[in-house]
Amino acid sequence: SSSSTTVCLTDWFATVVDLLGSEQGEIGGEDSASLLPLLGGENSPRRAPVIHHSVNGTFAIRQGPLKLVLSNGSGGREKPAGKPFGEPYQLFDLVADPGESKDLAAERPEDVQRLAALLATLRKAKRSVPKR
């Protein structure tokens, strides 16, 4: 089977905790959402945004098909370039453009502002998934 649900490597933390029937507790897994319902064939609720962080300090946020890179250079597939939080930011639609070749930031400034504000809120909260 297949699923179009966004998942992240950190989600295995909460998944293993659920499999063991344990409590997640106060340490670790701040951005981890359990994949157990999804693996059981249930329609999983929409996942919280995924936060990416590269070696040079660049952050990106993915929500649904959109990914906002908060840098004026790359931070992922290439050797990191650009300045973290240096503008202009880059916006990609990963469904229509999985190779991230067409920057949509100039065409969709409302999405850039919304995702940048959401990332700021999540960074301040120090987690993207509510405590369990």
Polypeptide structure, described:
There is one protein chain. With 132 residues, the chain is an alpha+beta fold. The protein is built from 3 helices and 4 strands, in the order H-H-E-E-E-E-H. The longest helix has 17 residues, at 109-125. The protein starts with 10 loop residues before the first helix and ends in a 7-residue tail after the last helix.
Distance between the termini: 29 Å
The coarse silhouette is globular
Cα-atom radius of gyration: 16 Å
Biggest pleated-sheet summary:
4 strands, antiparallel
Uncertain parts: none
How many helix segments?
3
What's the layout of helices and strands?
Layout: H1 11-20, H2 36-39, E1 50-53, E2 59-63, E3 66-70, E4 90-93, H3 109-125
Antiparallel strand pairs: 1-2, 2-3, 3-4
Task: Please tag this protein with its features.
132 residues, alpha+beta, 3 helices, globular
What is this structure, in a nutshell?
This protein has helices spanning 11-20, 36-39, 109-125, and strands spanning 50-53, 59-63, 66-70, 90-93. With 132 residues, the protein is an alpha+beta fold.
